Amino acid sequence: MGCLSSNLTKRRLVLLLSLLLHLNPSLAYSLKNCNIEYSQDPLADVVLDCVQHKVVTVPDDIPRDVSSVKLDNNLIEQINRKDFGNLSKLRFLGLNFNYIAHIDDESFIHLTSLTILHMHFNKLTKLTGNLFRGLSNLTMLDLGLNEIQFIHKSAFSFLPSLQTVILYNNKLQQAADIQPVLQLPHLQKLVIGSNLFTSFHTKDLLLNVPSGLQVLDISYNVKLENFSITTPIFPHLEMIDFSGCGEHTGLNWDIPDKNLLRNIIQLYFNLALIPFKDFQKVLESLDSLMHLRLNNMEKLITKGLLATVCKIPTLRRLELYYNHDANLSAKLVTCSQLSDLDLSTTHMTELSNGSIRSMQRLRSLNLEVNFLTNVPGEIRSLSSLTILNLSDNLLSTLGCEDFMNMKHLTHLDLSKNRIATLDGCAFENLNDLKVLDLSDNLLWTFGDAFKTGPPMLEFLDLSKNFVSLLERGDFQGLGSLTYLDVVSKKIGRVKHKAFEGLMNLGNLRVSLPLEYENNFRELQQLENLTVYFNTDGIFKSPLENDHKSFYHLKSLKVFTLICEGYHFGFPFDVPMYMFQAMKHLEGFTADNVYIAAPDRNTFQYNPQLKNLTIRETDLSDLDPELFLPIPNLQVLDLSYSKLSSLDFLAEADLYELRHLTLTNNELTVINETVFHYLPALIYLDLDNNPFICDCSNAGFIQWVKSNNQTQVVNTYKYMCSFPVAEQGNKLLDFDIQSCWMDYGFLCFITSTCLVVLTLLSSFIYHFLRWQLAYAFHLFLAFLYDSRKRRKGAPHRYDAFISYNVHDEDWVYREMLPVLEGEQGWTLCLHHRDFQPGKPIIENITDAIYSSRKTICVISRHYLQSEWCSREIQMASFRLFDEQKDVLILLFLEEIPARQLSPYYRMRKLVKRRTYLSWPQAGQHTGVFWQNVRRALETGDAPTETTDPLTGPAGC
Ligand SMILES: *[C@@H]1O[C@H](CO)[C@@H](O)[C@H](O)[C@H]1NC(C)=O
Ligand SMILES: *[C@@H]1O[C@H](CO)[C@@H](O)[C@H](O)[C@H]1NC(C)=O
Ligand SMILES: *[C@@H]1O[C@H](CO)[C@@H](O)[C@H](O)[C@H]1NC(C)=O
Ligand SMILES: *[C@@H]1O[C@H](CO)[C@@H](O)[C@H](O)[C@H]1NC(C)=O
């Protein structure tokens, strides 16, 4: 019992601590249209994702501390001045693919940190003078695919840091239109492709200082007829993209002084209609050209263009893709200076003899997307080659000589071919090979291809083949391999020790049949393991003890098990043994692997687990104790798992959990109080649950909208499944105000009570004013008393006699002679001793407080008289206040208790105290007066126990 409660205390402490540690209120909350991207790093930049959310205006609930906002693919038509107020930390803003036609001046004035602004594919027609005011740190501005015709001359004057300007596909017509851009002090790259330029003359541009421009993209200005650089305004220009220029009209060059282009190292042409002679002249004048792209230029190539190109001594990289010329290679015979050649997508069936074998400096050759049926013999001698891309051809076999001399090859891409068999010696000499891609072929076995090498291979992709059998030692020559993908839909058997020799394998993706026998004992370095279980779509039961395969994976960090198809459950019979060796496990995913919730001991040995995914499993019986051994869990995904309640979260102690996905479950009502047990939760996804839209979810809806820590993503999409009348409506649109009806009623009651109370008090004031006045005097008495006490004033009288006027006769006849005469007390009688002219209440107070005792002469008249009862009250007040016995009750007539009851105070006194009774004294008046004397003589301490006279014991 003690243990239990101390545990509970500990839990609470942990909860409190984690609450304190994790509270980061600025980070996350549910937004109307957007999600904050989740990041593992709590200090990472805040990225707001509103892409494709049918947003019509810039959302007004963008958190102030975001650094990126993605609003692409929405329906925004206009940017208003207030839209981006206060986002002073924003560095990236994406507004691509909207309908923005108008932007208020100075809309970005607060975005002083913004460095990147994307606005392509909108409807802007002009850039006004004050549009970009405030963007002092902007380096990249993308305004492509708009309808811009006009740029105000000061539009760019507020952009001192701007380096890259993209104005691709607009309606600019003259070089002078872009003058404001060219005046940018740090401009490096300008893209003005696909505009309506007909000519581009540098003499039309008036710049005070030469531009720092390095890259000019003027491509696809199909009407461009004249291009002339006659003034030295681009001394730093390195690259011009002329692709598509003069496509219809032809392009005239005017570059009289070749010095003006002396720094050009890169030129792109595509579809250009340039007179052959001009082209030749230009190419010959470029002394530094290194990189040339000539796409779709068959016409000029047929005329012998490549002969000119091959004469450029500085040329290193040549790209000839999209030239559909089967004989293209033959024209490259003299290009021996190249190091980088791209012949992809050229409809090539073979490389002609002698075409490229002379390129002894060639390091990279791209032959992708052609019709090669063999590895061309022409490349066998290219011993300098390091990168060879033969992807997407028609290769069917690989022979021993194919790569024989490529001793320096490091990257070989053979994916998307029809390779069905591999010679054992195919990769024999590739001693430097690091990356090999054989995916998407027709291989059904690997034979001996990897039994002896390649020794340096690090990355091997064999996925999407038809391999059905992995034999022992299939990969034993790959001692350097770190990544292996052998996922195959056709796998039927993986034999013992199939992965023998892979001492450095860190990452393995593999398919296993349900009856697998291999264990991964030899994979001591394995960190990431992804296993696909193949069931061929039929019901099958896996073998017993299969899980022993995983007993030795000591280094495993990320473990993923995915089963495609039906099965009767994996017999992980002693569940924790499967994970016992994996002390460093950080991530585990089981997709359609468990039939029911895993045993609660499953993760007993995996305290480092941070990510857990259990999907496609019936978790309706989930035991929260499953989570107790893994308190560091940060990411939990339990989607598609028949969860109908979240109660387990209250006992799972998931104090570190940040990211929770529970999509596609059977949650109808969410009790929001469970989230108190997840103090670190910032991201919650509950999409696709059959929510009930009634008051049972009102608390949850309220929490979604108002909590300022946990972002409930995509809430705007959550639909109502019940009740039928709400179907098709959205959960968040449900009117929770109506649920506070009861509270409203309470409210009504409360205010009613208030009104009644007010009425009552005025009533009381009106009719019981007097009593109130008395209470006030009672209070004064208290003050008086305190004052007196402080002064310690001596008593003037021995007793104050309180009596009714009807009993005056008795007092004067019987009492006075005995007490004043015989016994010698000094008495205070109000008829005799009250000061005239003084308020009666003051007289009473004075009398009581200046007498040692108060004798109440009680009769029926006395009780009925207000004054007297008040005198008693005041005296009894003194009694209780001073803890002194000042009151002597003297009953002049027998009064039954029942008649005392209206005088509750009197009854109380009579009950608590003894009293003297005149009628009972009868003839023995002497004894009576003796008792009175004794009462007057007693000290001041209350005498509850002494009984001066027998009398009726009250009630
Ligand atoms: C602008 O950029 C500079 C350098 O990148 C940086 O030091 C400065 O803080 C930035 N200004 C603002 C307002 O973010
Ligand atoms: C395991 O996978 C993660 C990414 O999921 C990667 O960062 C890590 O480098 C991988 N480890 C190895 C050894 O490949
Ligand atoms: C855990 O999940 C997060 C978010 O999905 C991911 O970024 C991270 O790489 C995962 N870590 C591991 C160890 O699986
Ligand atoms: C929600 O859960 C708490 C305990 O976690 C419980 O006290 C409360 O009654 C529940 N509310 C509803 C509406 O079920």
Automatic annotation (TrEMBL):
Database matches in InterPro entries: Cys-rich_flank_reg_C, Leu-rich_rpt, Leu-rich_rpt_typical-subtyp, LRR_dom_sf, TIR_dom, Toll_tir_struct_dom_sf
UniProt subcellular location: Membrane
Keyword match Repeat: yes
Single annotated GO MF: signaling receptor activity
Keywords carried by this UniProt record: Glycoprotein, Immunity, Inflammatory response, Innate immunity, Leucine-rich repeat, Membrane, Receptor, Repeat, Signal, Transmembrane, Transmembrane helix
Organism: Seriola lalandi dorsalis
SMART domains per the UniProt record, alphabetical: LRR_TYP, LRRCT, TIR
Residue ranges of the TM segments: 740-760
Name of the molecule in the record: Toll-like receptor 22
Similarity-based family: Belongs to the Toll-like receptor family.
Location, primary (coarse class): membrane
UniProt xrefs under PANTHER family: LOW QUALITY PROTEIN: TOLL-LIKE RECEPTOR 13-RELATED, TOLL-LIKE RECEPTOR
Gene Ontology CC: one annotated term: plasma membrane
Transmembrane among keywords: yes
Domain of life: Eukaryota
Bilayer topology annotation: Single-pass type I membrane protein
Domain TIR span(s) in chain numbering: 795-936
Gene3D superfamilies, per database record: Ribonuclease Inhibitor, Toll/interleukin-1 receptor homology (TIR) domain
One annotated GO biological process: innate immune response
Signal sequence annotation: 1-28
